[in-house]
């Protein structure tokens, strides 16, 4: 057993080196893993034909249900990733949660990096639908974390109360939250907090393990709005993401409370940079710097993030592929928010609004959370610039309405640059 | 198959200590029994359907338990689970079932004629009588582990069997996913409808997967014999009626069960049963008879008596509120049922209920007249 584990580690180093050389590391990684774990992909007994196992999706409204035909199911149901993750596991959350007539959920998750390859016949069309036409079979996703390219990005603080950028990162070679074993999850924790421990200067900070935090620490984290709790959403629990809670889960933040990392919640890591006020440029600069530092630190130990040209950063939910980035502000727009053209303006600027409690909450007063719509097909720099340009436009509109002037719906900006 | 744990071979790349769950804050039967040694011994094993130790214990890992209530914390995925993982299940069963040993034999007795009395419980006090149990169909995996195809096969076979019943048992099946609004209203009004489980104990064990596919309710025309299909077990069988005639309830229970079992045997899928564990069900707490026989009974004075709990224990009975397990009583009305499941027969357990409730109603009447009841309290456990 110990020798197999050592081989896994050394293969990760090889994959790392090969990716530097640009040899399509995902494919190589997949093949290397496959050699070692051939027996793990072996099938458990299948007594019934695919037609007897095909789920009843007639009352369902999610992306998985839209694309999982009996033919696709029959083709994929006997396959497994090298770690043994199966189609039935990937779609369980979508079968158990038929969805909402107005909100279309994704309805499936990845158990490991290879899920997106082995079950591409289902994941590719779902990705295309969810990401507004991005075709993973033909297109390439650009990654750009050079914050110096950002123009403007200091918002008028009469309107913008706070600025925030978040994303996720997965550690290559370890299964994702729906499928990881306790040992894998603990390994993710070790790798990540080891790297975070090496951060310095304004990024230096501390880790608070969910299993061991004191009452005072817990209260402080709640007061800072940093603490995350066991998921209650059936979308997540049906995918197996809350197993073994709170083992190997925790929160890390820097001393200044402007850079925060969640460990083993919905993804291996969720990385958040934020501050009060309108200095989005600084928030993004710290975001990029922190991410790149963490990446450097894990690479020193032979690890790397899951990433490929086709899908960008690989995360648990297909909706977070690409950049996994949501950059947003809390902003008050008392006049503009009442203007009937507001939704169309947001749409054309490729922005979305949420309440200040986050997704699925209502706005309080006329304060909104405004962020980018897109995740995949544009780089981090492009998406943040889109948010900056868009928010500046919204502020201009609000100012014009204050002076009794009229506003214009902007031209729709193109989605893929 | 439940999520996350079926890639067992891959998991063996990690050492025992790396995978062993953190049970330091846990209080359930599984956590008390599972040592690193047992974990090491069993972790590379699988039942013929591919169920593993981590699958068995997931619900107990995810639900640390309550300081006062001791949950079981492990489930079976198929009949063979109890054999393959006996190093875990035997001690859990022993703790849960009052010292039942790995070598003990369980007696099954569904001959209703062996019950003495039970037709004369005072209806002024006993409002309703009910007996329930569960049954698993041999050859199919259990609710924590079965695939959609298997669950549908269990439904198909069960509905065929139930629809062939006649006389007092003639009835109809209502599948959860296609019942009409009117049917649903009626089933709710009759208190027959079951809903998707919300208890994290069940959800963490994977029992609500694919809901409501292949789940349904069957009941006879008289509404006195009811079967739940694919809820917590393959089948839950319930016989009930208003009033205190437990003898009649038990007769119908035994006759109905025996008829159903005959039909399943003809299809070469009898019920899961063995000499040691009796009827095999998903949760170890329901092994043996899987039987809960009980009444809704008015005991406002007795329930206030300081020795109420002691009396129940001596009579081998337990109390619940009339909403079922974990509810409080309303207006002095309690659900009183047998505490035991394994190590005594169906007749013996229902006899406990009949004799015990009769005695408690006598006590209640005495207390109403202001008389003492000490002479009636049994000196020791019956």
TrEMBL record, chain A:
<feature type="binding site">
    <location>
        <position position="270"/>
    </location>
    <ligand>
        <name>ATP</name>
    </ligand>
</feature>
<feature type="binding site">
    <location>
        <position position="225"/>
    </location>
    <ligand>
        <name>ATP</name>
    </ligand>
</feature>
<feature type="binding site">
    <location>
        <begin position="162"/>
        <end position="166"/>
    </location>
    <ligand>
        <name>ATP</name>
    </ligand>
</feature>
<dbReference type="GO" id="GO:0004111">
    <property type="term" value="F:creatine kinase activity"/>
</dbReference>
<dbReference type="InterPro" id="IPR022415">
    <property type="entry name" value="ATP-guanido_PTrfase_AS"/>
</dbReference>
<dbReference type="InterPro" id="IPR014746">
    <property type="entry name" value="Gln_synth/guanido_kin_cat_dom"/>
</dbReference>
<dbReference type="InterPro" id="IPR000749">
    <property type="entry name" value="ATP-guanido_PTrfase"/>
</dbReference>
<keyword id="KW-0418">Kinase</keyword>
<protein>
    <recommendedName>
        <fullName>Creatine kinase U-type, mitochondrial</fullName>
        <ecNumber>2.7.3.2</ecNumber>
    </recommendedName>
</protein>
<dbReference type="GO" id="GO:0005524">
    <property type="term" value="F:ATP binding"/>
</dbReference>
<keyword id="KW-0808">Transferase</keyword>
<keyword id="KW-0999">Mitochondrion inner membrane</keyword>
<keyword id="KW-0496">Mitochondrion</keyword>
<dbReference type="Pfam" id="PF02807">
    <property type="entry name" value="ATP-gua_PtransN"/>
</dbReference>
<keyword id="KW-0472">Membrane</keyword>
<dbReference type="GO" id="GO:0046314">
    <property type="term" value="P:phosphocreatine biosynthetic process"/>
</dbReference>
<feature type="domain" description="Phosphagen kinase N-terminal">
    <location>
        <begin position="45"/>
        <end position="132"/>
    </location>
</feature>
<dbReference type="GO" id="GO:0005743">
    <property type="term" value="C:mitochondrial inner membrane"/>
</dbReference>
<feature type="binding site">
    <location>
        <begin position="326"/>
        <end position="330"/>
    </location>
    <ligand>
        <name>ATP</name>
    </ligand>
</feature>
<keyword id="KW-0067">ATP-binding</keyword>
<dbReference type="InterPro" id="IPR036802">
    <property type="entry name" value="ATP-guanido_PTrfase_N_sf"/>
</dbReference>
<feature type="domain" description="Phosphagen kinase C-terminal">
    <location>
        <begin position="159"/>
        <end position="401"/>
    </location>
</feature>
UniProtKB/TrEMBL annotation, chain B:
<dbReference type="Pfam" id="PF00217">
    <property type="entry name" value="ATP-gua_Ptrans"/>
</dbReference>
<feature type="binding site">
    <location>
        <begin position="128"/>
        <end position="132"/>
    </location>
    <ligand>
        <name>ATP</name>
    </ligand>
</feature>
<protein>
    <recommendedName>
        <fullName>creatine kinase</fullName>
        <ecNumber>2.7.3.2</ecNumber>
    </recommendedName>
</protein>
<feature type="binding site">
    <location>
        <position position="191"/>
    </location>
    <ligand>
        <name>ATP</name>
    </ligand>
</feature>
<dbReference type="Pfam" id="PF02807">
    <property type="entry name" value="ATP-gua_PtransN"/>
</dbReference>
<keyword id="KW-0808">Transferase</keyword>
<dbReference type="GO" id="GO:0046314">
    <property type="term" value="P:phosphocreatine biosynthetic process"/>
</dbReference>
<keyword id="KW-0418">Kinase</keyword>
<keyword id="KW-0067">ATP-binding</keyword>
<feature type="domain" description="Phosphagen kinase C-terminal">
    <location>
        <begin position="125"/>
        <end position="367"/>
    </location>
</feature>
<feature type="binding site">
    <location>
        <position position="236"/>
    </location>
    <ligand>
        <name>ATP</name>
    </ligand>
</feature>
<dbReference type="InterPro" id="IPR014746">
    <property type="entry name" value="Gln_synth/guanido_kin_cat_dom"/>
</dbReference>
<comment type="similarity">
    <text>Belongs to the ATP:guanido phosphotransferase family.</text>
</comment>
<feature type="binding site">
    <location>
        <begin position="320"/>
        <end position="325"/>
    </location>
    <ligand>
        <name>ATP</name>
    </ligand>
</feature>
<dbReference type="InterPro" id="IPR022413">
    <property type="entry name" value="ATP-guanido_PTrfase_N"/>
</dbReference>
<dbReference type="GO" id="GO:0004111">
    <property type="term" value="F:creatine kinase activity"/>
</dbReference>
<feature type="domain" description="Phosphagen kinase N-terminal">
    <location>
        <begin position="11"/>
        <end position="98"/>
    </location>
</feature>
<dbReference type="InterPro" id="IPR036802">
    <property type="entry name" value="ATP-guanido_PTrfase_N_sf"/>
</dbReference>
<dbReference type="InterPro" id="IPR000749">
    <property type="entry name" value="ATP-guanido_PTrfase"/>
</dbReference>
<keyword id="KW-0547">Nucleotide-binding</keyword>
<dbReference type="InterPro" id="IPR022415">
    <property type="entry name" value="ATP-guanido_PTrfase_AS"/>
</dbReference>
<dbReference type="GO" id="GO:0005615">
    <property type="term" value="C:extracellular space"/>
</dbReference>
